[in-house]
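thought: fold this chain, then report.
action: predict
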Amino acid sequence: MNPLLEKPYEQEELDGRETSYSFAPEPASVPRARHLTRAHLADWGLDEHSAVAELLVSELVTNALRHSRGTIGLLLSFRDGLLRCEVEDADPFLPRACRARDDEERGRGLHLIELLACCWGSARTTEGKAVWFELTTAGALAA
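observation:
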């Protein structure tokens, strides 16, 4: 079995166009989230969006690991030509893009999301916050 697919994560198939995962707060969750994003997009016929979605999901999951404690949630949904990826964590503070200096190794993730996604945002939840982005797609999941 592929070690990226080994637990700890839980999946809930919400319907044919939406699925969610819960990950343990550990560094191995970042490649798991990328791999599961790629696999699910392939199932939906959205392979051409996989590289960007994986990159942006990994940025959000990494931010959740860095700034929060507890379980990390990933929700993937595809409706009306939009792929939405949402990461939830227990930190109530909403992210904001900051200007990274040229010599800094961090601080560019939200700028990548701003550049590559058609839109993004964040909202407080009862247990912390959710940060999401959307990608416009040309692919279609069979109804």
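thought: worth noting. The longest strand covers residues 128-136.
final: tokens above.
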